[in-house]
Amino acid sequence: MSSSSRTAWFLFDNGSVRADSTLSLRRVAVTLAERTGLPVQAVSLLHSSKVPAESLDGEPARLLEPALMEHFATFPDGEAVLLPLFFGPSAALTEYVPSRLASVRARFPRARLRMAPWLVNPEDGDCRLAGMLANQVRATAKLRGWNRPNVVLVDHGSPQAAVAAVRNHLGEQVRRELGAEVVALSVASMERREGDAYAFNEPLLATALRTPPFNQGDVIVALQFLSPGRHAGPGGDIAEICAAAEAENAGLHTQMTQPIAGESGLIDLLAERLSQAVQVSS
């Protein structure tokens, strides 16, 4: 892959009001730039612009749509390659981003936009992300000195059944990867919308941690999250769910893994997704 000033390369996430999420995104972008030789920029879809610049090393967070508008204002017939830091086809990617790109195209009709695939496709049999999640479980078990813990793999939860299918797919892969290293593994969602139409998110993490065998002994809560933030970060929603379950049951001991943004294999996978994007234009 080669670069010119007429092409902008954007790694984007959903965004967070927590500074550590944006800082994590920036670290991934820097490492990916070093890996590919491309000037990859870190941007978010929403939220991150609310974080004070002083919490971000003095550099305000940037959002994708304004960044695209700025690039095409300089190069109206230029190109932008968009790389989503998302596990699967969330509504952000299937609904929100297309609507924002339509606005960009309406203002800059000669602009060229390429979208890279998201990280997990259950149809392709790629086990790399599951391997990263399994590595985090192993590292956490070693840190705590636990032998054959139970594991709950938790994602955010989504109104999109296809996103839950990605979680379930990863859960099966991680279960096979860990094998006899763990007693049992379940998947769970941090939260879900009300109603039977969204029951595919079940079980919730709060329910799983009150259900045998995950309500006793050593339980690793494996975070299917890419970066820390108000959900997966220290003192975040998942930590509070774990603490509440432990408070109800003195025999339960939980430990969260780290998000996987720090996994070196993630950079290789993102570089591959960039290569796929430049092969087919949107």
Automatic annotation (TrEMBL):
<protein>
    <submittedName>
        <fullName>Cobalamin biosynthesis protein CbiX</fullName>
    </submittedName>
</protein>
